[in-house]
Amino acid sequence: MRIGIFGGTFDPPHLGHLILASEALEQLQLDKLLWMVTAIPPHKAINEVHNLEQRLSLTKMAIRDVPQFELSTLEIDRPGPHYSVDTVDIVKEMYPDAEIFFLMGQDSLRDLPLWYKSELFLELCDGLGVMRRPGIETIVTSLFEQYQDIEKKIHWFKTPLVDISSSDIRERIQEGRTYRFFLPDAEFDLIEEKKYYQ
Ligand code: ATP
User: What is the pLDDT of residue 10?
Assistant: First the structure.
């Protein structure tokens, strides 16, 4: 069994996330992809992140058409602080025979040295699935120097660059600009109906 863990604030989830996740399914031949909605990520301020229930219902809506996608509340169900290294450890205990792949965008890979116990985190992951992100310089050389074997673990996804971010969507909604095609229809309808982010 091959399992992907995709951690994010998903505030809201968008097509960049979905492209990354579907590429991961295909390229890493995953049997299951856990969308790990984070409570308050260690690197984001509390007032930057919206209501958990809102993010959960939007994520559920965004992933509902793909049977291998699963919403995971593993992080929010345990007391913080929530570190990815602990999440991977718990998933490994739940699926002892599975190979575990952690998925992220290039900006998250760049920030890896700031992660709690990043060496152990890398050791626990069988692979990292990474999607390039516009505006992020590739800083892999310094990562290769810092972490032995990281080069062998990184799988770069072959996708076009997608310049969509949750913060841009939130800003667009607040300014009354269009964001209609930046996320799935069902999610758009839910945001409009509930007047989220206004
Ligand atoms: P925000 O704009 O609020 O910071 P975000 O769009 O970066 O949010 P997150 O939920 O923080 O979304 O991202 C979860 C993961 O998905 C991170 O690893 C991030 O790098 C990755 N990701 C998000 N959007 C993209 C994108 N357009 N291309 C590649 N990776 C992405």
Answer: 96
| DSSP codes of every residue in 27-57 | HTT-SEEEEEE-SS-TTS-GGGS--HHHHHH
Round the CA-based radius of gyration of the chain to a whole number and report it.
16
Q: Domain 2-163: which CATH class?
A: alpha beta
> Looking at the predicted structure, is the pLDDT value of residue 137 above 80?
no
DSSP strand E in the chain: where? Answer: 2-8, 32-37, 69-72, 99-105, 127-131, 154-156
Q: Atom 8 (ligand 1): residue with closest C-alpha?
A: 166
| 51/115: higher pLDDT | 115
**Rounded CA separation 10/14 (Å):** 8
Q: Ligand 1 pocket by C-beta < 6 Å: which residues?
A: 8-11, 16-17, 20, 104-105, 107-108, 131, 133, 162, 164-167
Q: Give residue 47's pLDDT.
A: 61
Q: C-alpha angle with apex 123: 38 to 84, nearest 5 degrees? A: 10
Backbone angles phi, psi at 63, to 5 degrees: -105, 5
- 87 and 74 Cβ atoms separated by less than 8 Å: yes
Comparing 34-43, 125-134, 158-167, the range with the smallest average pLDDT is 34-43
The sign of the dihedral angle between the CA atoms of 175, 178, 182, 188 is positive
pTM over 0.90: yes
Q: Which of 167, 191, 163 is nearest to 10 (CA)?
A: 167
